[in-house]
Amino acid sequence: MLAKTNSCTLLGIEGYAVEVEVDISLGLPEFHLVGLPDTAVREAKDRVRAAIKNSGFTFPSQRITVNLAPADIRKEGSMFDLAIAMGILAASGEISQDKLNGLFFLGELSLDGSLRSVNGILPLASSLNPKECRHLFVPAANAVEAALANNVSVFGVDSLTDLVLFCKGEKELVPVDVKRTDQLALGKKSNYSEDFADVRGQESAKRALEIAAAGNHNVLLYGPPGSGKTMLARRLSTILPSMSLEESLEVTKIYSVAGLLPSDSPLIMERPFRSPHHSATAAGIVGGGRIPRPGEVSLAHNGVLFLDEFPEYSRQVLETLRQPLEDKIVTITRANASISYPCNFTLVAAMNPCPCGNYGNPFKECSCTPTQIKKYNQKASGPLVDRIDLQIEVPSLEIDKINKLSRGEPSAVIRSRVEDCRRLQRERYKGTATTANGNMNAQQLKKYCSLSKDAEKLLFSAFKHYGLSMRGRTKLLKVARTIADLEGETKICSHHIGEAIHYRCLDKHF
Ligand SMILES: Nc1ncnc2c1ncn2[C@@H]1O[C@H](COP(=O)(O)OP(=O)(O)OP(=O)(O)O)[C@@H](O)[C@H]1O
Ligand SMILES: [Mg+2]
After folding, report:
1. Which pLDDT value is given to residue 374?
2. Residue 311 — pLDDT band, cuts 50, 70, 90?
3. What pLDDT sits at residue 179?
């Protein structure tokens, strides 16, 4: 007998519907699974057999063939277990096929028939078409996450027995309240454990980070050890505008695929902050593996990617960052599939002025030779630093001075200014792919960065004095645009250019 059930599979963060066809025919007891399954899917045979038996149903001792269609998409993971088990029970006459039409099943079975949670439920559920899917059945632990997709009715199930009894009309199951998504969104409050108020002094660095947040600019923090670079960088995500529900869902999908969602709060509401160690490989940073997983750049999507001790990263890692920084999307190609993950992040790099860290420090002597200093700075030069808009010097503060300084402005106050500035930019770039000044294209640069006469003169002299490259000039203009926007000025004046020049002061080092 033939039976059909429905499930879905993931390619990157895109889900695709999969039809599970089960045929039971006379012959020696065999179990074949076809349709480009990977190892975890092939192992479903053993799990499903044990789960059906241990749930008190009869496992047919005939020839069973399971086909996962379409056969040209690679199926991975253990989420097909439930659909395969339901298909076998329908084909063996335990459940009527009519009851299964329009139902989708996702979930891993344990040998006793209970359901285990699986990764990627949100993108899987989001991909379902409500016209084809009447109800979606997922493990109870994944139910709220699936309901966030807000497109189909979702049931959380504890065991195979419960689901069979429900399909037979002998047990009642209640769908998850999909309105919960809105409640989650409404009650959403970013709850960062860090705050800018903790940083004493360092006003100029804080101002620069405010500009970076307001215009989505990449940042390089440059200063001696212990001056507060890491402390400042960690607080950048607290002043970025709070995420919209769409942004939260985008981030949640990536974390769901990576299996990094916290089980108690499936919707990620805080902007991510990722700080991979400098020993990270290129695959760890941009994503990879036989079946490509999202890398650090994608896990930092809509948030901050922090590269501490920047010159210590391998040249290959820094080179691989160039393309994702430009395109905001990373595509990983393998023999059987090409998978794309979004990666729109703000890059924050931090470095010391020299290997020992004390070069230029008035309180400590530097023990490096000029050659060592040159070599260290050279490592950080090149195409990646070229993509950084703001170079911020973070000087070392004396301990007695730090204690005398009062607490700084809280993140919430800075964030409200940043949000006003972002609103202005959204209005300006409406209908284009640009979201903030940092991502302006050449035409927009020409259109929105007209300078007053004085500003033009100042820019020209800076160009000569610092030997700025054309790319450096473009970056300077973008930053000046953001500074003017923070003031609510439509025209870029000389003091905006003046401040922007201040953030290119390290060009001479590289
Ligand atoms: N401006 C400041 N206000 C309050 N605390 C500070 C400040 N600067 C530094 N600190 C304290 O010093 C500690 C060390 O700072 P942090 O780790 O950010 O330094 P760093 O510049 O990243 O050093 P390294 O180059 O060694 O990585 C912080 O955890 C914080 O407690
Ligand atoms: Mg540090």
Report:
1. 83
2. confident
3. 63
Q: Pick from 339, 358, 416, 40: which is nearest to 225 by CA?
A: 358
pLDDT, greater one: 52 or 245: 52
- Alpha-carbon dihedral of residues 247, 248, 253, 256, nearest 10 degrees? 160
List Cα–Cα distances, 503 to 392, 474, 475, 485, 488, in angstroms.
6, 13, 10, 17, 20
Does residue 221 contact residue 287 with C-beta atoms inside 8 Å?
Answer: no
**pTM, two decimal places:** 0.85
> Alpha-carbon Rg of the chain, whole angstroms?
28
Percent of the chain with pLDDT over 70: 94
Torsion on CA atoms 218, 223, 226, 227, rounded to nearest 10: -80
For ligand 1, whether the C-beta of 361 sits within 6 Å is no
Q: What is the pLDDT of residue 170?
A: 92
Identify the CA nearest to 1 among candidates 17, 29, 22.
22
Model confidence at 180, pLDDT cuts 50, 70, 90, reads low
Residues 9-33, mean pLDDT to the nearest whole number: 91
Q: Residue of the nearest CA to atom 18 in ligand 1? A: 228
Strand bridging mode 63-69 / 115-116: unpaired
Cα 246 to Cα 236, 257, 302, 412: the distances in Å are: 21, 17, 11, 22
The burial class, CB within 10 Å (0-12 / 13-18 / 19+), for 463 is middle
Structural domain 196-439, CATH architecture: 3-Layer(aba) Sandwich (3.40)
Residue type at position 443: Q
Ligand that lies nearest to the alpha carbon of residue 223, given by its number in the listed order: 1
From the list 248, 240, 270, the residue with the least C-alpha distance to 417 is 240
Nearest CA to ligand 1 atom 29: 231
Assess whether pLDDT exceeds 80 at residue 418: yes
pLDDT digits (tens, 9 = 90+) for 281-292: 988 999 988 778
What token pair was written down for 475? Answer: 């970056």
pLDDT at 265 over 80: no
How many Cβ atoms from other residues are within 10 Å of residue 4's Cβ? Answer: 17
Angle CA 351–355–361, to nearest 5: 75
Q: Does residue 234 carry a pLDDT above 60?
A: yes
Q: Give the atom of ligand 1 at the shortest distance from the alpha carbon of 394.
A: 21
What residues does each domain of the chain span?
A: 2-183, 196-439
* Ligand 1 atom closest to the CA of 405, numbered from 1: 3
What average pLDDT does the segment 192-200 reach? 87
Q: Which CATH class is domain 2-183?
A: alpha beta
Question: Two tokens at 167?
Answer: 């399909």
Can you tell me the distance from the alpha carbon of 184 to that of 266, in angstroms, rounded to the nearest whole number?
10
Nearest to 167 by CA among 134, 191, 123, 205: 134
**Mean pLDDT, rounded, for 302-316:** 89
201 lines ligand 1 (CB under 6 A): yes
User: How far apart, in whole angstroms, are the C-alpha atoms of residue 37 and residue 213?
Assistant: 44
